[in-house]
Design a protein that fits this description.
With 176 residues, the protein is mainly α. It has six helices and no strands. It has one domain. The radius of gyration is 22 Å and the shape is globular.
Length: 176
């Protein structure tokens, strides 16, 4: 059986190629650079794919994860991500005294939080996918500050208070 395709005029083929090229360029440029206006409101789900605490203290290290979420939401350089992950590890160790737990969480975020992963918990998740490891401009840092101010006004205790009825043990920050 032979399949035949309808013939297209040269003009139709050119129009189709131009439309395809325009769509490809639009897709490529949409993730190439994010602007301050592209920053989504801050959200947190605590420790994402990990418990926020133990069976008896369900929010034992929730505040550590909230601060880590702020850093991941805002994004920045690869060095800033390393510092955020180390701060999570140190905070969990401080709250639990459990080195194995803190190292497990650290290794988990190091392995799963890379900005290339199309996940809600990736590095720089507040920005459109594709931002990667880029330092924030002064304008973007101001946008981060304003969005976090708005978050804390609407959620005075943050995620941990709303989900578990406890205030985070660390001071609120902007991840800078």
């Amino acid at each position: 059986m032979t399949t035949t395709f309808p013939r297209r005029s040269g003009r139709a083929v050119r129009e189709l190629l131009v439309l395809t090229a325009a769509l490809v360029l639009a897709c490529l440029s949409s993730g190439a650079s994010a602007h301050a206006a592209d920053l989504a409101d801050f959200t947190s789900d605590g420790c994402s794919l990990f418990p926020d605490g133990t069976i008896t203290d369900r929010a034992k290290w929730c505040g550590c994860c909230l601060m880590h979420d702020i850093a991941y939401w805002r994004g920045g350089t690869e060095e800033e991500r390393k510092r955020a992950d180390a701060a999570l590890r140190d905070c969990v160790l401080e709250h639990t005294g459990d080195k194995a737990l803190s190292e497990t969480m650290y290794l988990g975020v190091r392995a799963g939080g890379h900005p290339v992963f199309p996940a809600w918990y990736r590095w720089a998740y507040g920005w459109p996918y594709g931002r990667g490891y880029n330092a924030l401009s002064d304008e973007e840092r101001e946008q981060v500050r304003k969005r976090l101010d708005g978050y804390w006004k609407g959620h005075p205790g943050g995620y941990c208070a709303e989900e578990h009825g406890v205030l985070p043990k660390k001071e609120r920050g902007d991840g800078q």
